[in-house]
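ok so i was messing around last nite and threw this chain in just to see what happens. nothing serious, just curious
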Amino acid sequence: MKHISILVLNESIISSIDAPRQLFTKVNEFLQVKGKSPMFDVELVSDTKEVRVTNGIYTIQCDRTLDEVKKTDVIIIPMLCNGLANAVEVNRVFAPWVIDQYKNNAEVACLCSGSFFLASTGLLEGKNCAVHWGAANEFKAMFPKVTVVNEKLITHEQGIYTSGGAYSYLNLILFMIEKYAGREMAIFVSKMFEIEIDRKSQAQFTIFMGQKDHEDQPVKKAQEFIENNYKDKITIEQLTTMLALSRRNFERRFKKATSNTIVEYLQRVKIEAAKKGLETSRKTILELMYDVGYTDIKAFRTMFKKITGLSPIEYRNKYCESLKV
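result:
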């Protein structure tokens, strides 16, 4: 039997504690119905027996404390709330136990913003990590030695698993159920809980809002100019002349402040505008392409799919409510 320790961290979110418990427990129930032995020993583990979570709204009674768990096979790290830097700080007491268990061959799966805690242990250094698109820049700033993989929903490397944003952690739990209990069981659980199985990308959910949480005013001015004039042909030379900066200096500062090159930023602004057009209007793909400043349909479709993971038609069919009649 595989022992699973679901950590109940301070400032954690209750849904990301209860959902893994339910999914792994459902596997045991199904096995018992078929006359087989349960596969998972699932426990809630914390530094104390009673922990208040989700901004103190709920109280969880834990099965065991860290000191009582000498050996575990799988550690589940839940989502965090209430300021991620603060959530990392108030959970430092858990780090030595997680590191010791990992060194003793335990696997570690972190759900969404739980990656901030896991990164603080040093176990993610030099590894890939899936992070919610809305927290990616903050994560990169706090943990520059970890490689953020924005487009992937799940990463798994050397016994460490991470998942992208919010409820996509359910796909990580399904992934682990398939690994331990097989494909048939993963499909069964996905159907019981109505979770879309085999979802691999979070690209279609990303909303590009521009990274303006920096203090470089010339870069902010350039961002605002791009966002207000993306339909026109904008060149780097035009921006550098406007800001009275050298090209090399401007490109370096822009990438540092926004985590995008200037060209990438312009492309993402254009595609975000196209996405909104596909969601709300009945304009043709060609019309929307011209609206956002593209003139080559192949280039537009290629860039749209690169950024969203879907073709323009697939995106419209998925998100345009006016077509669902």
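not much to say yet. The chain has two domains: 2-204, 217-323.
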